Amino acid sequence: MRSILKDALILFAITAVAGILLAVVNEVTKEPIAAQKQAAVEAACKEVFPEASSFEEREIVSDVKATAYSQLQQSSPKNSVDRIYEAKDASGACLGYVLNLTNKEGYGGNIRFSMGVTTDGTVTGLSILETGETPGLGLQAESVLVPQFAGRKADRFTYVKGGGASAENEVDAISSATITTRAFVNGVNFGLEFFRNVIGEGTF
Fold it and tell me: pTM of the predicted model, to two decimals?
């Protein structure tokens, strides 16, 4: 009995010390890990909104705009906003937003990408976060589609097959990858609708 009690006390002491050490390590590493994560967020946002000096994550939708967001999702059920960051200049003034979006219409499944948009609705850039599109076809989105949106302003974008896009709201489709093209264009248009109808002026 005395031996069992002794073993239990030793085990308890080891567990207690391990718990204390774990708590100390967690406290020591908490701030560096948070800083590392923030740096990664800043780098990703900077890629699509290079003019901004800093980025602050915001709620996807406020209570005031909940109805507008619900209506938007009902009209475009295959699109969603995953995260939203406010892009600020050096003085802290809002330059626009970075939206992390998901479109479910891709040939290979979901397509996740970031989109920067200024306060006047101009797209500053796109960056693909995740895609399962076909190598050699849909995967050309990074080199063919993404560059076409930067610096463009339109209420809605559309794509043109066979090249020849000339209007401000037109982009050239990826050859033999219409499904991927449509998914990206629909995703961008959803992001612009979210910007206009849900974010709105003064939401934050």
Answer: 0.76
